[in-house]
Amino acid sequence: MRVVGLIGGIGSGKSEASAILASMGAEVIDADKVGHAVYEPGTAGFRGVVEAFGRDVVGACGTIDRKKLGARVFSEPGQLERLNAIVHPLIREEIERRLDAARSRGATPLAVVEAAILLEAGWRPLVDEVWVVSAAAETVRARLAASRGLSAEEVDARVAKQMPDAERRAAADVVIENDADREALRARLHDLWTERIAN
Q: Strand pairing partners for 7?
């Protein structure tokens, strides 16, 4: 089983590429979803987050209130790093566990780890190759205006907080240009599957 790390900035179409690969038969592991799972009540992650940030980040229903936690870690210097130090090792462990389970099942020739922060978190050793989904700034602005109602300034502010696209591209084994429509993206992914996975 080949393992691909799928990365890309906000609005690049990374999640769409992931969904297309899943429809083609890939096993997809979404690091964001794993991240939410590792601090559900009763987990070591939950205990670690509460110890680090206090009971006030726990919502009325007993789960971590991600909005409260987010407001805290993005407004106070050093707090995001503190949170990452708790959850990143747990996310990595769970991704490894899921990859092992996929290998054991042997059901697909491709597993995709969709993780925007794959490189920053040091998870590159988990994958055989890195595919980056990339789109021009104008395309990203148009997509996020349509899907999330964000202004060009809001989009640019979010993009500025991420790893620069040039760095992602430099670290990638494959660059997937995604400035056209979904069918063009599907065709590119189909070609990649044929060239790199099926052979």
A: 132
Looking up tokens 């964001």, which residue turns up?
32
**pLDDT tens digits for 140-198?**
999 988 888 888 888 888 888 889 999 999 999 999 999 999 999 999 999 999 999 98
DSSP 88: H
**Tokens 């690091």 map to which residue?**
31
Q: Does domain 1-26+108-199 have CATH number 3.40.50.300?
A: yes
Residue 48: count of CB within 10 angstroms of its CB:
18
User: And the tokens for 198?
Assistant: 């099926």
State the pTM of this model: 0.91
Which residue's entry shows tokens 């109602």?
A: 149
What's the CA gap between 99 and 113, in Å, rounded? 9
User: Where along the chain do its domains lie?
Assistant: 1-26+108-199, 32-106
